[in-house]
Amino acid sequence: MTEPAASAPPADHPPSHIGRRLRDRREALGISLREIARRIGVSASLVSQIERDRVNPSVSTLYSLARELGLNMGDLFDPDGSASAGDRRPFSATPAPYVVPEERSVINLESGVVWERLTPEREPTVEFLRVTYDVGSESCPADSLVTHGGREYAYVISGRLGVRIDFEEYCLEPGYSITFDATSPHRLWAIGDEPVVAIWVVVGRQSDTRVKD
Question: Which residue segments constitute the domains of the chain, with CATH numbers given?
Fold first, then answer.
């Protein structure tokens, strides 16, 4: 069985506190740890560590868990889905239509991938994100591309971002933008010795929300 390496979050990338939301949903559906692990192709130990916020999942593992559990990514950003809101104020405390940097809802992922939601509340059809890929980080292994519902739009602010869509690869530099159908197998990774920062929009990812029997 091949699975992403599990490692404790670096000091500058603390746990995202999404484990309880994943565990509660899994238990509500009556799915065992071993069964959900079997469905997404990882070990039950890894799923257990993710649910206890001992490790941050990879992008591909989080996609797989959300899909199998019938969750939108917006569900995971919601403060109510967190084991702890931590050092962030709940979004309900900010009635304004804007979000200041220190109040963004954040999901930290394996190897230094960070998603920051740029909307004050969950949007039902659109995800508007600031995405960071640390040096050496990737959305998934080179031999295991990701697919999900919706269409993606991205604009690179800094760094160089590698993008593979099906059999084509691209290198996006600052100022470059890209759009693609997310149902096409794809992979993202940081190129070189500088982190990548990009603005990302995903439209219609919820079309892939389903619970498999």
Answer: 19-208 (2.60.120.10)
